[in-house]
Amino acid sequence: MAGFFGGIGGSRLPLNENDIENVLTAMGDGNLSDIDEFEDSDDDCDPTAIERLVLEGLDSGDVLLDQSYAEPIPDQGQCLPPPSAVSFGEDISCSSANTNNIPLQVSQLPSHTINTPTPDNFAQRSSTRSSSSHSPTVSSSRENRNSTRRNTANIQPVQPNSTNRSTFSIQNQPSTSRPDLWKETPFEDKPHNFEKPSVRPVQAPVEYFKEYFDDEFYELISLCTNNYFMRKSGRELKTSRSEIIKLFGIHIMMGCIPYPRVTMYWRAGIALEKITSKMSRDRFQALRNALHVVNTDIQPPSQEPNVLWKVQPIIDQVRNGCYKQERTPGYYSIDEQMIPFTGRCAVRQVVKNKPRPVGLKNFVLTTSSGLMLDFEIYKGAKTMFEETRLGLGPSVILHLARSVPVGSCLYHDRYFTTIPLIEELNKRGIHSTGTIMHNRIPDRTSLKFKKDSLMQRGESQQMVRDSSVLVKWKDNTTVTLASNCTGASTTDIVKRWDRKNRQYIDVPAPKIVMNYNKHMGGVDVLDQQMEYYRTFIKTKKWTLKVLIHFLDLSLVNSWRAYKNDCLANKYPRNKTLDLLDFRLEIAEVLLNSPDKQRRSSDEDTMEINVPKKFKKAIKPSISLRYDGYNHLPQFDDLKSPRACQNENCKSRTKTRCIKCNAYLCIARNQNCFKDFHSA
To answer: What phi, psi does 101 have (nearest 5°)?
Structure first.
C-alpha cells in the first residue's frame, strides 16, 4: 500500500481524497492487487476523507447509477442533513410542509469500513491513533482489514427502483473494453468475380445524346429564354425549340473546330459555312446571352436555400440521364472534377494540382472505364448530405454510393478515406479501397510500420484490425492504402524507372496497389476526354459556363455508352466512331433539325382538313387570253418552279405572262407561251 500511495520509508504521507478514490475504483472493479500491501502501520488514512468524497459526489450528482432515473430536486423544502447526521447504509430523507420525503440511499459498504463522523468519534479516533503506535498488539486491526478484503468482492450496487426515481447510489466506474489493435497478421482477400453487363444493340449517336437532352428540355429552354429577354429588354426574342437545338449544335461544332475568337466563325475568308448558314452572328450572341433554364430571376421561396438554383434544371436533366445507365456489380471510382470558371461565383473553389484549379468543384461517381453514373456539385458549407457524422469526405462517398450495387468495389483517394468509412461500407456490403493519411488512422500508436528510410523499394508491410487492412508500400516514396477487401497477400511485378541506372527495373507491388492503379482513374479518363474537344466560351456568367460544361459532359458520357455497346456487340474497330466523329455527327443532326415538329403516327391516321400551301392557278378569260396585245413574258425568282398552265404540258417553269398571270414554259424545243396565246 505504501508503494501505491507513494510512501517513502517508515514515515508515510497521509492519504488524500484522490488516493481514496483510486482505492474505491480498484475495489469496484474487483481488482485487489493494489490493496494486498496493507500493513498494520497504515493507520495514516484520514477516516473522514472517504465520507467527504461520497457526500461531495451526492451533491454534484456524479454518483448517480443511472441519470435517467433521477429527477431534479425542487428548490423549496429540500434539505440535506449535516455530515454528522449521515449514517451510511441508511436512508437520508428530509421533509417539509410542501414536499414529500425523498429517500437517498447510499451504496451498501461494510459498516465497519466507514463510521459516522461525529465530534465524539473524532476525539476518540485521535486518541486511538496517537496510542496505536505504542500498543503492543495489532491483531484486531489486521483482522478488520482482512475481513474488509474478503467483503469487497460482495459489494453490489443498488438497483434503481422504478417506484422511487429519486434513489441515489455510488456508481462504479464502467470497465471500458480495450479496442482491437493493429496487428501484422495475414488478411484474406474477398473475391471479385463480377459478371459482364447485359448486351444491348448499338443505336445511332443522337439516340444516346437524347437520354440527356430531349425535346421537352429544349422547349423549356426556349420558353425561359424568351421570358428572360422580354423582362430585360422589353422586346420579343421569338426563339423556338428548333433554334435552341441549332444553338447547341453550333456550340458542339465550335468544340470540334476551335477558333481563338467566337466572332471569327463569321469572318469573311475563314467563316465556317456549316455555322454561318444556320444562324447569323448577332442572332447567335443574342441567344447565348439570354440563354436561361429557369423562368424567374428570384429563387422561389418554397424551395430550400440552393446556390445553384439557376442551373438546377440542367443538373437534374443530366443526372436523370446518368440514372438511366445500367448498374451491375463491378469496379467504381469517386473523385473530384472541376467546372472551370475564373469569374465571380459564390461556390467557386481553388483545388491545387488540378489541370484547371479554379472553378466549381464537382464530386463524380464513374465506372472504372469512365462512364459517369452520378455527381454532386459542392455548395460550400451548405452542402447537405445524409451521413455527416463521419465528416465531409466520407459523407460524399456514402451519398454517391447509394446507387452502387451490393458487392461492388469502390475506389477513392485520401481526400475521402477514413477507417470508419471503410467499416461503414463493409456493413453495407460494398468493398472499398483508397489511399489514406496517417493522421486519419485510429490507434495509430499501435502501428509497427517501418520507417521510410529503412524500407527498400518494392517492400510492403500489412497491418490488420477486424475487417480492415492497412498496407504500406514503397516505390519512390511510401504510400499507405486502406481496404476492407484486398491486402498484400499476393504481389505482382511492375516496371519502374531507375534514375541511378537509367533503365526500367522490375519492382514487386502488392495486389491492393495493382487494383487501385487499374480501377481508380475513371474520373480522370472522363476529364481527359472532355478536354480534347471542350467547347470554348469566354463569359462572366457562371450559369452559362455550367450549361456548356454539362453539354460537353453529356456528349462524352453518350460516346462512352456507345463505345461500350460496340465492344459488347464485337463491332470492328474501323466501324466504331471515335469521339470527334461522334460529336460531329451529333452536331450535324442538331444543325439540320426541322423547323417544325414532325407529325406523330397517331396524327397520320386521323383525317384532318389541312389547307393547301398553294392555291390552284386561275386561268384567264378567253377574251383576255386571245386579245393579241401586251402579253409579255417575265422570269420570277422563285425557290421552286410552278406547273405550266398550257394544256397537255407537264413541265414546270418560272416564266410568267404579266398580263394573264399564268406560268408558261419557254424552251428550245417547246414554246408553251406562244401556243397558249394562239387561237
So the answer is: -70, 130
Q: DSSP class of residue 61?
A: T
Give the helix/strand (H/E) hosting 425: helix 419-427
Q: Which of 152-166, 174-188, 307-321, 655-669 has the highest mean pLDDT?
A: 307-321
What is the Cα–Cα distance from 309 to 295, expressed in whole angstroms? 11
In the predicted structure, residue 568 carries a pLDDT above the cut 90: yes
Q: Is 269 left (phi over 0), alpha (psi -120 to 50) or beta?
A: left
Do β-strands 409-412 and 431-435 pair in parallel, antiparallel, or remain unpaired?
parallel
CB atoms within 10 A of CB 565: 18
Q: Are 553 and 530 in contact (CB under 8 A)?
A: yes
CA dist 458 → 105, 463, 488 (Å): 66, 17, 12
> What percent of the chain lies above the pLDDT cut of 90?
53
Quote the cell numbers at residue 569. Answer: 456487340
- Closest by CA to 614, choosing from 635, 636, 640, 589, is 640
| C-beta separation of 74 from 99 below 8 A | yes
**Amino acid letter, 337:** Q
In angstroms, rounded to a whole number, what is the distance separating the alpha carbons of residues 141 and 147? Answer: 10
Buried b (16+ CB within 10 A) or exposed e, 263-272: eebbeeeeeb
CB–CB of 472/456 below 8 Å? Answer: no
What's the N-to-C CA distance of the chain in angstroms? Answer: 146
Q: Please give the grid coordinates belonging to residue 517.
A: 492503379
Contact 484, 425 (CB under 8 A): yes
pLDDT tens profile 78-113: 444 444 444 434 443 434 344 344 343 433 434 443
Give alpha helix (H) positions in 240-280: 241-256, 273-276
Sign of the torsion formed by the C-alpha atoms of 389, 394, 395 and 400: negative
H or E segment to which residue 151 belongs: helix 139-151
